[in-house]
Specification:
The protein contains 20 helices and 13 strands. By secondary structure, the protein is α/β, with parallel strands linked by helices. Strand 7 (about 270) and strand 8 form a beta hairpin.
């Protein structure tokens, strides 16, 4: 396809031209990209600016282990942390090994399902790996300045300090700084208390623990900034209040917008399912395709939020799009950088190969894919395992792979030219299947009926 060939030409250039002019300490400039929804306290912008310009600061964001992978919905927070890192600041990712047992009620209409300690530990390990991979890919493939200028991310688990705290002492020393009236006014609490299901004390207490996390990080690392999604404002303001009472030190919170498509759908949702950062749960191809399919009305905003292109570069990208919209150049830039960020250069190569395998209709493109890649690319295609034996005809293969409801349908469709093996049209129902002509080196045959109905045959020899 035209856009794919064009992408191949510009990929190497774009990946090395990624904006290195965004390493100003003043990360408030990101507001020009639509990165921030609120600053807390809302009168503190000038104080924050003075702090950022005077010396490197420390910022943190929290990630609770509710699943064994982060997803695309977490990317805006991660990318915001990367901007802080590019500005020379210290970045902390807090993993909720302890708070994962409690569950954040923000944005939830019912109590979260309690997770076992083993599951939480496994999820923590996976999320830690997600974060390390993204930060390493950014340094290796997107950041083009001296690598030593990037301070390494610090990943901490709040279980390490809560397991040392006496519960009575915690309630006595920390709990007394919270006022019930204030806690009840938090939006996440009000929504749940006024609902039919109500709210458990466990989740009601979540804001106390998140507040203490910030207090601990302030004492330990002088962490004066917290970033989070727009639904975290209640927890952020609670932490600010606790620190003001106990430390009498100024700290600041910044919330990021909930990103939705033009139709109001949550960003990162595909057919109702989350797009995971773990390549085993969501293939690089699926992630790449999600961004390639971004609508024209959404793409400029997503380039500003989710890539490191400068505002000038984004303007140029959109200018090219205006003159050649059929090339989908902004979508390619978006897919290029985000797939590289999540899966590295190798993942992007696999995604491009998979894209080519579908759209080029060339059997050579299929040969470049592994068996697992093919299954991920055609993830909705039924998979049939067959024993390779002499005398299997095209008609018999189509029936054994359940491509047709009846033999009569099979004969009619095949003879009319509507059946393909490895992108090659086959019209002779009596043609015998051979390893050299019909089976890929990975012992797979990709069958297609019509334009979009794919079937995978895994041959057993």
């Amino acid at each position: 396809m035209l856009y794919f060939k064009h992408f191949c030409r510009v990929y190497r250039r774009n990946i090395t031209q990624t904006c290195v002019r965004l390493y100003s300490r003043n990360i408030l400039k990101l507001k020009d990209r639509g990165m921030y929804q609120d600053i807390f306290p809302n009168t503190a912008a000038s104080d924050i600016l003075n702090l950022l310009n005077s010396s490197p600061q420390c910022v943190y964001a929290g990630f609770d282990p509710t699943a064994d992978s982060l997803h695309v919905g977490n990317l805006l927070v991660i990318i915001n942390l990367l901007h802080w890192q590019r500005g020379g600041h210290d970045v902390i990712a807090l993993l909720g090994g302890a708070t994962g047992h409690i569950g954040d009620p923000s944005g939830k209409s019912t109590d979260r399902v309690a997770l076992s300690s083993n599951i939480i530990a496994e999820n923590i390990a996976c999320i830690k790996s997600n974060l390390e991979t993204v930060f390493e890919n950014h340094k290796k493939y997107i950041w083009s300045e001296d690598e030593d200028k990037l301070k390494p991310i610090r990943i901490v688990n709040n279980e390490t300090w809560y397991k040392e705290i006496n519960s009575i002492q915690f309630v006595s020393d920390i709990g007394r700084n919270f006022r019930m009236g204030t806690m009840l006014l938090k939006q996440s609490v009000k929504n749940r208390i006024n609902s039919e299901v109500g709210m458990s004390f466990t989740e009601f207490a979540y804001q106390i623990f998140q507040s203490y996390d910030w207090l601990y990080l302030l004492k330990e690392y002088n962490c004066r900034f917290q970033v989070g999604g727009s639904d975290q404002m209640g927890n952020i303001s609670a932490g600010h209040e606790l620190i003001s009472r106990m430390m009498k030190q100024d700290v600041y919170g910044l919330t990021l917008p909930l990103v939705t498509t033009e139709e109001g759908d949550k960003f990162g949702k595909s057919a109702g399912n989350a797009l995971w950062l773990d390549g085993k749960k969501t293939s690089p191809y699926s992630l790449y395709q999600y961004f390639i399919r971004t609508k024209d009305s959404d793409v400029e905003r997503l380039l500003k939020l989710f890539t490191f292109y400068s505002m000038g570069e984004i303007k140029d990208i959109m200018f090219k799009h205006k003159h050649h919209p059929e090339q989908r150049y902004p979508q390619m830039c978006l897919a290029d950088q985000l797939t590289t960020l999540v899966h590295g250069e190798e993942g992007l190569t696999r995604a491009r190969q998979a894209t080519n395998a579908i759209y080029s209709k060339d059997v050579k493109s299929l040969v470049s894919l592994s068996a697992s890649d093919l299954e991920q690319v055609f993830d909705s295609a039924p998979v049939t395992k067959l024993l390779l034996s002499p005398g299997i005809t095209v008609l018999k293969l189509g029936m054994m792979a359940n491509c047709f409801p009846t033999e009569g349908d099979a004969m009619r469709i095949i003879e009319a030219g509507g059946f393909y093996i490895n992108h090659q049209r086959i019209k002779n129902i009596n043609e015998v299947i051979t390893e050299s002509a019909h089976i890929l080196p990975n012992l797979i045959s990709l069958l297609r009926v019509g334009k979009r109905n794919y079937y995978i045959v895994k041959w057993q020899t």
